[in-house]
Amino acid sequence: MSNGNQASDMSEGSSGDEYAVSVPEGRGRDRDADGEASTIIESRDLSVWYNDEQALQSVSMEIPEKRVTAMVGPSGCGKSTYLRSINRMNDLIDAARVEGEMLFNGKNVYDDDVDPVALRRRIGMVFQQPNPFPKSIYDNVAYGLRLQDRTENLDEKVEEALRKAALWDEVKDQLDQSGLDLSGGQQQRLCIARAIAVDPEVVLMDEPASALDPVATSKIEDLIDEMAEEFTVIIVTHNMQQAARISDKTAVFLTGGELVEFDDTDKVFENPENDRVEDYITGKFG
Amino acid sequence: MSDTDEFGRVSRRVGQLFRGVLLASTLAGILTLAVLLVYVANDAFRPLTADPGWHLTFLLTFVLPTLGVGWWSYQRSYGTLTTGLLGIMLPTIAALYAGGLAALFIDVIPTLVWLSFVVAFAIPVGVVVALDRTERDIPFLAEITAVLAVTAGSLLFVPDLVQGLPTVPADWMVLVLTIGIPEALLLGRWTRGRWGRRAGLTTGAGIVVGSAVAGVLGTVTGVGAIPGVALALFAGVPTALYLSVVAIERPERRAGLLLPAVIVGGALVGELFVGALGFAGPESWVDWGFLTSTVQRGADPGAVGIYSGIVGTILLMFTVAAIAIPAGVGAAVYLEEYAPDTTVTRIIDVNISNLAGVPSVVYGLLGLGLFVRYGGAQTGTLLVGGATLALLVFPIVIISAREAIRAVPDSARQASYGMGATRWQTVKNVVLPRAFPGILTGTILALSRAIGETAPLLVIGAAQVFGVPDSWNSTVGAMPLQLYVWASTYASPAFYTTVLAAGIVVLLTAMLSMNSIAIYVRNHYEQR
Ligand SMILES: Nc1ncnc2c1ncn2[C@@H]1O[C@H](COP(=O)(O)OP(=O)(O)O)[C@@H](O)[C@H]1O
Ligand SMILES: [Mg+2]
Predict the structure, then answer these.
(1) Chief location of this protein (chain B) (predicted)?
(2) B349 and B230 both lie in a single domain
(3) Pairing of strands A202-206, A123-126
């Protein structure tokens, strides 16, 4: 273990070593950083309350298209809340209230004329616990397409999504078996296949690997790398090294729901502007 | 910490005493119930009136082999034993219900009327399917108008048309057509998904041909065409399917099927020996005559039967199920999935729980006031009785359905909403399929509560002498009401130890079979 002054809420089942980031060689993504990506999602002074408790404080940030953006920070700092406010999953929580703007392709998703259901068909989501439906592998992947009545060439679309999720070779002979019979890592890749089968523009991932073993985790990380060719990926993680390995941009939230640093991943890890961020990523506090 | 080697001892005297008291009260409860059941069973079946030779024969051919094979299966594996038990329970219970349905078609619903309404409902369903399949874009409003118009027109004209046909199909043909063919299609699809195309075709063809043969055989043998087809479709087919599933998919449990074989074989062989050797069986009060006689009073208990009560109970069950299940499940889905969490919904919550505990007499009074006083219905009819019992089980259905819906993990809903599903799509695709076994279990238990009720029926003015109903507006009785009448109005010492005991056995059999189905469904799905 590293130093003993880590706050208790940091120890989410991982050893402290993961947080004491000794920046690995060749970290960061190889994506050509020169071609500036356009912004696909932008929040302006976004605040979220649960009843009277504020979970996000005026967060403003511009998320680039077809890049991997990581969100890190101690637990309870509002990362999931931010993610859920992008595709309006917060609408399902009675206590949640949102203020400010969340622009998706320039349009505020909280405008009255935006249908949250239609929005979620363009912004897919992958959760912390793999949650395939108790249906066959095929039906899991076809779920979103069937919801939208996009059932022409269903077989090809299912195969394509499974290939993109690097799962096809493992399951192609058992498509009619239950998705729950797969291992945890395979289940999570099935959930990714389910999310990308409908060709969303953005894929939100809330700690997608935190319930998985290291081998499964590294497969998911490779997958995320490939996904950024086609989709915008926004990933919440509590694993600093993971953020450093896979993301182009990193946002650091600190307790209280404050966004304290948002920049290119290299910059955040090598030379953060905020001292508290430096302390946080080197594991001095949670 | 002291540094001696001894830890000392902690006293458990009070705990031991407590445990002893608990054990004693458990035993007392079980023992009382057992004594009561043995007492009633003794009166009903009168085993001591049989020749000792009869007992000895069946002990040798039936009891000992059954126990032996049961023990042997248990030794092989627990799964083997349950396979065997299910192999005998399934046909038995299914045959009971098939008999009930047959009674329905014989006494209450003429097969021709049944056929005419099936056709009248099939037409709009066909239209809906056709509309769903067509490529052309039809406006929603036009679609709904068309469907409603076809439904209304079909219900208005088709029944009369069918009933006025010059040639009328035989009873068994109607049943094969209206029940056999849909069952064949459904189960054929199921087996095709499981074992391939050929199995699907065989299943479908087997069901249609088998039930038709059963109809003809029933007519020839005198059992009757309707019971023949009903037994084939509702008992024969499920049993055959169960045997196939075990044979094909569970080779390691196949040995369990020896148990039902020994039970059936033992009973037949015993019967053969008893007949050949001339041993008289017990003069049981529960016999074919008791089950099929509609005589309800008189000095001779031998002539009295419970048939009207059985048919009444079955009809009431159908009515209650038709009213309480859609309404109760609908309310549960609304409260769990749609209603916002406000003070009003919380008040409703508490009140539903309270309603489930209201004494049944009160529901009887409610039914009387609601349907008879205000609604202007006649007292004691099938419709009023069914509606009143439906009120009684309504809160129970809601509560159990809500529990089943609440047990669906929230992550499943999140997954669906996250994919851009609407609320309705989520309820239909994710919530209801997962909650279904729980809802089924709860509603069966609720119905089994309803069939034991006497008080509400008395309060709504059910007649003390009742026949077999032949329409919604005929007076109806039920098994518990029959028992009550035998024990009070027509009480005579001759009845107490005879037909009353036999009636209790029949009622308990019906209730226990329903409860065991519910328990089976629950356990079966919990294992997944
Ligand atoms: N459904 C909810 N109801 C009330 N409070 C919530 C809810 N979800 C999250 N919160 C609160 O909002 C804050 C941020 O939570 P969350 O976004 O889940 O943080 P993170 O994902 O960074 O761990 C926490 O204080 C948490 O207690
Ligand atoms: Mg979180």
Answers:
(1) membrane
(2) no
(3) parallel
Measure the CA–CA gap between A161 and B471, rounded to whole angstroms. Answer: 58
Residues B202-229: pLDDT tens digits? Answer: 999 999 999 999 999 998 988 889 999 9
Q: A132 and B415: CB-CB below 8 Å? A: yes
B133 touches chain A (CB under 8 A): no
State both tokens at B353: 């729980």
Cβ separation of B341 and A121 shorter than 8 Å? no
Nearest to A121 among B409, B415, B420 (CB): B420
* A91 Cβ inside 6 Å of ligand 1: no
State the total domains in chain B: 3
Contact B418 A120 (CB under 8 A): yes
Q: Say if B69 falls within a structural domain.
A: no
Q: What is the pTM assigned to this prediction? A: 0.82
CATH at B422: 1.10.3720.10
For residue B79, is it within any domain? Answer: yes
Phi, psi (deg, nearest 5) at residue A30:
-85, 0
pLDDT for res B166: 86
Strands (E), B114-177: none
| C-beta A72 within 6 A of ligand 1 | no
Is B53 a domain residue? no
Structural domain that includes position B88? 74-285
Q: What is the CATH number of domain A37-132+185-191+199-281?
A: 3.40.50.300
Atom of ligand 1 nearest to the CA of A79: 22
Q: What is the DSSP letter of A177?
A: S
Cβ contacts of B433 on chain A, cutoff 8 Å: 134
Assembly ipTM: 0.86
Are B226 and B171 spatial neighbours (Cβ–Cβ below 8 Å)? yes
For B199, B335, B352, B393, the CA distances from B345, given in Å and listed in that order, are: 50, 8, 10, 20
Q: Which amino acid is at B494?
A: A
Contacts of A267 (CB under 8 A, 6+ apart): none
Q: What is the pLDDT of residues B504-514, one digit of tens each?
A: 999 999 898 88
Report the nearest-CA residue for atom 20 of ligand 1: A76
In a domain, B395, yes or no: yes
